[in-house]
Amino acid sequence: MFGDKMVTPAIPERIFALCKIVEKNPISSADLKEKMEPDYLENGSVYFNDYRKAAEELGLIAISDDLVSLAVNPKVIKTITSMRIYINATLEKYNTGQFYQVTNAYFEKGSDIFKEDKNIANLSPLFSEMTGMPVDAMAMRAWRFWASFLGFGYLQDMFIIPNANVFLSDVIVSSELEKKRLYSVTEFVNAITPMANIVISDISSKKFSYGVSNGLRALQDAGRIKMEHIHDQEDMWTLYPLRAYSNDATITHITIL
Amino acid sequence: MNSEIARERISYVARPDSITTSEGDFLATHVAIKKIKVLDRFDLSPTGGKSFSEEDIFQQYICNPEDKHQFIAIYGQSGTGKSHLIRWFAARYEQNKSREEVVLFIRRSDNTLKGTIRQLLEKPEVQGISNKDVYERLVKAAVSIEENKLKDLIYHNFIIEIDNDFDDHDIKLTGVIKKRLAAFLNNEIVHEYFLRKDGPIERIYSKIAEHSTVDRDTIAQFELQDFLVSQDLYDDIQRAGSDRKAEKLALELSSDVNGTNMAKKISEYLNQFRNDVIQRCAGIEPGDFKQIFMDIRRELFRLDKKLTLFIEDVTSFTGVDTALLDALIEEHTGKREGEALCRISSVVGTTNNYLQKNFKDNHKDRITKYVYIPSDVFGEKGLYEFIARYVNTMSLSEEVISDWVNAHANPEDYPVHDVVEGKKWDYIGIGNGKRINIYPFTKNSILYFYNHVLEKGHQTPRYIIRKIIEPVVHDAIFNKEHFPSVDVKFMSVNTILSSRIRSQITDQDVAERLFKFMSIWGDGTTDQYKKDDKMYVSGLNTEVYEDFNLPVLTMDSIEPPMEKQNPENPLELSAMASEESEISSLKIKKVNDANAFLTKWTNEKKIDISATVGVGGTVHSAVYDEIPNYLFTAINWQAEGISMDNAKKVRDSAVLLVALEGQTKKDGLFILPANWNSINIILAFIRWKEYGNRSWNYPDADFDAYLITSWTESIKSELIKKVSEYRDGIETNYIEAAVAAEIYRTILHGEFREKTLKNFNLQTLLASKSNKSSANSHCSEWDSLINVMAQREADVNNQQTVRKYFNIEQAGARTITVLDALKASKVLTKVKRQGLKIEEEEKQSDDRIIQRRNAYTLLNDIEERIEKVAEAELKNGRERVLRILDAFGDDEIGEDELLEFISRAKKFYEGANRAQINIKEVSLEPIRKVSALAKAIADIVAVLDEKDPLTIIMAFSGDPVTVIRPLLDVIGSMEAEVAKAKKQIAVKMEGLGSDLGDEDGANRYASELKSIKLSRQKLEGLVNI
After folding, report:
1. Could you tell me if B316 and B325 are in contact, meaning their C-beta atoms sit under 8 angstroms apart?
2. Cα three-residue angle A89-A91-A92, rounded to 5 degrees
3. Among B200, B348, B847, B854, who pairs with B226 as Cys (CB 3.0-4.6 Å)?
4. How far apart are CA B112 and CA B54, in angstroms?
5. Over 80: is that where the pLDDT of B181 sits?
């Protein structure tokens, strides 16, 4: 899913449910499968391997002698939100994977994504071209679940509206940034980019993409951060201009509230 | 403006009825009209042709240079300034008239029949007319009936006319319809409806009553709309239990198809009686009026005078209008010459509608000139001047105005007020080097109000005064701290401006005021520029904001604009002229209409969006479809701990995911407050649908997409809470009821046959196989409960609820179930531990989500019956098992006893066979499975003293009565056959005789014994030889 090709059955909620089962005691793969997809349900197909593999890729579980056990501190899977924060903090590990590359291209596309097809599955040729790796329709369908869950945007039917506020909120939590301290934008970006290169790939441009700008503005509206433009400061970044939001799209400082 | 003076003067100056203002105020506010048309023939709405100024008309026609009989009709829409013009003509004429001319100016100040006659009789020139005493008595006999009684009198007089209609009018109704109409009008609800404020009876009443507030141009007649019956009115009529005839007509009038035709016919039919009813209720006869007029003309002729008559409003004469017109068009020459009537020149004001409908053709033909005042009587400059003169007049004391009038009211002496408030505001030039400050107006605001507040047809002086000048000035004087508070619909919200204001100002009231001010008083843009060392924001000098204590925000700096060239017709500027041209004007209008509709909602805090068409339909679609559809996918319900089964149940329920504050006829989980932020959200969805054809591909969609996504995050936690909770702070737990009901179902259907729930596991819960056997021996109560559960497939639906609830669903893939095993086990364990019971106080049987409530309904159906089912089933089982125990003579029957029974039964048949007893042999084959029999008997015996219904029904789940039925059959048959055998043996025994020594018995075998004895002796004799 993250290391290689994206598959639809590996949805985050299934991974979380799997982790919760193995949290207390290791369990054999067969027993685990039987708990989540018991034979008596007569499903016909088996999805188990897909989400088990994704959980393993993410380092949430380990498999040894066919015994599946939790590979992270139980706090990580205390809630699905804590699991999400953990995954968002570790995404950079999979920067050659399909998910990472597609997400990166999606943010690069900015608001031009609105000019494309409303069904994300039909955008596989576009993302194949942008990422330079084959991305099929199924991969795009799988991507939407994770893009929505990890907070890169909001799912509207088969389309994702860019707004990275949840993702940014998570990486701020995972960063060392202190509350109530005025950071220059570069300091802020440096603090989060070890985890946020997926959405801020070109630091030298000093421009936040549409999706990231939406995220930052939403966090500001929610009272989580405060963005300021302090005059005579050279360290200046530009948000995607939204005239209705503000007449000034440049910021120099961010405070975590 | 000088508000100190204006607060006293506003109510005198800003009067929509020009006739009631003082002479000074009238002249000080007068703006010359220059677009008047003069016609020889009536034309409802003339276009083109030459335009005349009021001075032209005065000189050429009103002054009557040829001294001839003439009848000039001045017409135009209501409020266009007919009265104003007639008053101006009358005033001018008074100054220019010859000595023999008598001028009668008939005002409509008291606007009644009697009031009009009274005005005629008050003229000094007619004091000597004949019959004056009679006329005065007639007029003075004022209608002293109180308002409600008089209205009732009018109303019932129409009913009397219907009841006594002998089809002698042009428009006829069938007998059936007449009866229905009379019944309809006699209905209490209809009566109330017709007598409501501004209703049809009030219109007619206004022509009779001495005081009335009805629009003076209103025609006293029924309109088609009066008879259209809305669904609400129809429901009220029905609820009130009306006459069937009334109900039938109400139904017909409520029909979309025929309602309009019928309403039109009825209104026209009733209008035929209008004159009769009005005259009867006013106590005047038509002949009276004509007679008065003729007498006046005769008197004037006698005095060698001529009559010039100005009638402000001919509609005042409703009821005697025909008689009046006859009197006016009567020339003083020709056939009436001998009657010695004076010459008459009449200038009569009337509305288009009245002239068209109430003037008969012979009257129209004899009108000398038609003078038409168009609705948009002012040009842009005229409009500014009109408002400026009103603002000025109310800022000047009465004395100043009087002095000016007394000094001949020369334009060059026109007084201009000293500006106290609004020195930095716009000024309007009015000629003669005079400039008037128009605070609290700007040119932008005047144009906006004129174009968007005044409806088409109401862009007339009267409505400019009533809807623009009076409310805005009043607001600025008496409500300055909240200015502008007037209710104005926004034709086009500049979302960017709106958001910019709201992102900088937290006080919602201030934000709303500022937005309104910048949008309507300003140019509605986010531009700011510096010009002549002054800062302008939204086209307004920043000092203008300060006058109303409004904050000045920093906006987008631009170069100062070039001086604008005035467009040809700025009054018709489209509010959305600057919008992107790629979006159709129809769609823009749709969004703008929705915007106005929603703005009204924020003011009134209530909204009805039940309609699916029109502007209500646009918002309906957003609230019922676009918003919930979006939220359903945008929120990751499962990740938030909500089963998709619950989320879908909420989505599919009658309760809206998101409803509007004050929304009638619908309930919602999350309530969008009636504020600007909500409008922006709803409009974003409407634009997405309309502008983007369900996409974000349209200008400024990037902001809309930001709006709705950030809004989603802001409401997410509350919405999730609402979906996951049954009531505030109480989690929904319908799944427990559903699981309990499903367990009951598996037991009652014999799918789970164990005696305790211990082994009831997830497999049984989620994948139990249906019991195929059709026949059973359950009691009728048992079968009846199963039937109740199956009603409307409640049992099947509940089973689906249980099977879907624990599925971790992947959108788009429905067939594969991936279990949330921990959650499923937890719920099942809890339900089992509680013995399938949910405490009454924990039940959520009134959950407003009906799809969730169904689980409780089903469980309640089961619980209500289960005790009786268990009781009846136990009785049924007890009777049968006791029969077996009795037959066996034992209270414990196991496999050994059953085998013994079978063995003894076999022996019985063998013995009978040997003894040649003729009985029917019952097959023992059905009872050979002794283990099943023993279990069934034991199952029943085990619960014979049981009280717990669940334990009892579990004991009977496997239908043990059906299992023991063959044994009961065998026992029954055996008992019958044993009895039969006994009978046969008895008969045989009887044949053998008694062994008790009775005589017959002793002798029964005597001959055989004798024979045996003889034979023995013979045989012994042979041996002894």
Report:
1. no
2. 100
3. B200
4. 29
5. yes
The Cα of A168 is separated from the nearest Cα of chain B by a number of Å equal to 13
- Cβ <8 Å between B813 and A218: no
CA torsion B191→B192→B195→B198, rounded to 10°?
A: -140
Tracing tokens 């489209």 back to the chain, one arrives at B574
Neighbours of B130 (CB within 10 A): 11
Matching residue, tokens 């129409």:
B158
Task: Say if the Cβ atoms of A240 and B702 lie within 8 Å.
Answer: yes
Q: B826 and B806 in contact (C-beta within 8 Å)?
A: no
> Cβ of B709 and A214 within 8 Å?
yes
- In degrees and rounded to multiples of 5, residue B622 shows phi and psi of -65, -45
B994 φ/ψ angles, rounded to the nearest 5 degrees: -90, 145
The two three-digit tokens of residue A97, written as one number = 């994977």
In a domain, A85, yes or no: no
The pLDDT value given to residue B16: 66
Could you say which DSSP state residue B220 is in?
S
Say if A7 falls within a structural domain. no
Cα distance between the two ends of chain A: 35
Reply yes or no on whether the pLDDT at B449 is more than 70.
yes
- For chain B, which residues make up each domain, given as ranges? 32-141+283-373, 147-280, 378-482, 495-572, 585-730, 732-863, 879-991, 998-1025
Rounded CA separation B677/B680 (Å): 5
Residue after which a domain boundary falls, among A48, A77, A106: A77
Size of interface A-B (CB pairs under 8 A): 156
Q: Report the chain B residue with the minimal C-alpha distance to residue A246.
A: B500
Instruction: Examine the predicted complex and report whether its ipTM is higher than 0.95.
Output: yes
Domain hosting A184: range is 166-256
Tell me yes or no: is domain B32-141+283-373 CATH 3.30.420.40: no
Nearest Cα neighbor of B314 from B72, B57, B42, B56 is B72
* Phi, then psi, of B369 in degrees rounded to 5: -140, 145
A72: domain CATH number is 1.10.10
CB B103, CB B396: distance < 8 Å: no
Distance CA B683, CA B498 (A): 12
In eight-state DSSP terms, residue B638 is G
**pLDDT above 90 coverage of chain B, percent:** 42
Residues A97 and A130 in one domain: yes
Length of chain B: 1025
Binary contact (A156, B633; C-beta < 8 A):
yes
Residue B394 pLDDT: 93
Q: In the prediction, which pLDDT does B827 show? A: 96
Token output for B155: 């109303």
Inter-chain contact A47–B708, Cβ cutoff 8 Å? Answer: no
- For residue B735, give the 3-state DSSP assignment: helix
CA distance B702 to B242: 58
Q: Verify that A251 and A231 share a domain, yes or no.
A: yes
**Is the CB of residue B307 less than 8 Å from the CB of residue B106?**
no
Q: Which two tokens stand for residue A58?
A: 């993410």
Decide which of A136, A160, A184 is a domain's last residue: A160
What amino acid occupies position B404? W
Instruction: List, as ranges, residues 32-71 from A with C-beta within 8 Å of B.
Output: 35-38, 40-45, 47-48, 51
Number of domains comprising chain A: 3
Residues 6+ apart with CB under 8 A from A132: A101
Alpha-carbon gap, residue B782 to B780, rounded angstroms: 5
| Residue whose C-alpha is closest to residue B779's, from B961, B937, B912 | B961
What integer pLDDT is reported at residue B208 of this predicted model?
A: 65
- Per-residue pLDDT band at B581 (split at 50, 70, 90): very low
pLDDT at B420: 93
Instruction: Evaluate whether B610 touches B616 at the Cβ level (below 8 Å).
Output: yes
Average per-residue pLDDT for chain B: 85
Chain A: closest CA distance from residue B693 (Å):
11
**Taking 50 as the threshold, does the pLDDT of residue B640 lie above it?**
yes
